[in-house]
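Annual report, structural modelling task.

Input specification for the flavin-adenine dinucleotide complex:
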Amino acid sequence: MEITVIGAGIVGLTTAWYLQRDGHQVTVIDRRTAVGQGASMANGGQLSYRYVAPLADPDILAKIPGWMLRRDAPVRFRPRFDPAQWQWIMRFLQACNGNDKMRSVAALLPLSLYSQRLIHDLVNHDGFEFDYRQNGKLILHRDRKSFEAARRLLEARPELSGQQLSIGRDACLALEPSLSGIADSIAGGIHTASEETGDCYKLCQALEARLRTGPMPVCFRLGEEVSGFEVNDGILGAVMTRSGRIRGDACVLAGGAEVARLLVPLGIRVPVYPLKGYSISLSIDNPDNVPEASVTDYQRKIVYARLGNRLRIAGMADIVGFDDGIPADRVAGLLRETSETFGEGVDLSTVEPWAGLRPATPTGRPVVDRSPIPNLWLNVGHGALGFTLAAGCAGLIADKIGGRQCAVPAADFELARSTPSGWGVFRGRRAACPAPGLSTTDSAA
Ligand SMILES: Cc1cc2nc3c(=O)[nH]c(=O)nc-3n(C[C@H](O)[C@H](O)[C@H](O)COP(=O)(O)OP(=O)(O)OC[C@H]3O[C@@H](n4cnc5c(N)ncnc54)[C@H](O)[C@@H]3O)c2cc1C
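The model returned the following structure:
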């Protein structure tokens, strides 16, 4: 088939990769002039397969009032005259319950572990290089109560004992001597040796280079904005850009945070809204003083990852619409935290600030599904886990388009199930899901 993929971020490019391997003739369109310029550019770099808990959590409700009062809170809200913003917030609040949280975790975990298998293939079989490291993840708790809670959660799940370890302050320091500067404020940590990191933007670039080669090279139409769709008798005939119509047998929409607006004229509602986050990247000038593992500062909601000779620091979630500016106070906040924690290891004058819009659904589950228009497919809404989930979701959508059985249960990624179920009783597949790891904290970044 001739398939058009809209979006040249990590989701669109991995989608193109598996579609090309299935023998389809693929065209990738992006309004930006190069690949990976959206949320995929300078994200937290975490391949966080076992930490998939959504932001929507019953505990978060109690924190919201405090966050509203603090300028430096990890979550910031600026109201807009935009019904989409209010609708998303209402659904997000509706998703802040134990049922929806467990349902999302149960659905996401097999998907993320499938994604890990595919990432391993990309690295070991296909030879992709993107500063990929199997360096494990340390969730650092500064607060004794939160550490004890994380520890109790682990003890309640003996199947996790080989995967995730709760370790005290001394063990944290033995694992990561670079934390010695904040030794006094460490209560303990949860260590997961099987987590990984990589540079998402480098993977985007590497994918583009490979997709352009081979017997059926992918056609890239960069710098072209899709303005709409031509639908005849309920079937998609072409996607519309300024330079004309691009015909195809099918289309996969992988347009990140911007997809909801594009679908409105078709009467298709996807609950995707931007959750803005920030990162800074700094040159490492003393490798002994930056962490080997990726480190998540649980209380401050910041992640640190070593990518090549840089340290990437990412976090925060601002509900401020589509504004992609970089406020000085957000950068200053990340810089202050880094200076306090790993200041001896990095050159603070080399700061590269960045902001990106996470394409977030209220439940934290992406939509990987056929749309009501049968040859228009959706691979959208990966939120804080887009780098982690991209390969798995791309594999799923390729399976669906190819009419094959999906490698993992995919029902909870259907558009019809994207609405939170609220406080109704969840009778999902929790028991049936393989349980090699249940998140004890927030997701990637
Ligand atoms: C601060 C921050 C930290 C993060 N950290 C992590 C992490 O550590 N681990 C993790 O797994 N995930 C992380 N994420 C999330 C991850 O980066 C995103 O989920 C992921 O990049 C989304 O990929 P995407 O391809 O869907 O979107 P994008 O990368 O935004 O790509 C979408 C593309 O579609 C194009 N497009 C949109 N509309 C149109 C149109 N009409 N016509 C043509 N082109 C169009 C855009 O130009 C864009 O290039 C983080 C995100 C942020 C912001």
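Residues 39 and 356 are 5 Å apart (CA to CA).
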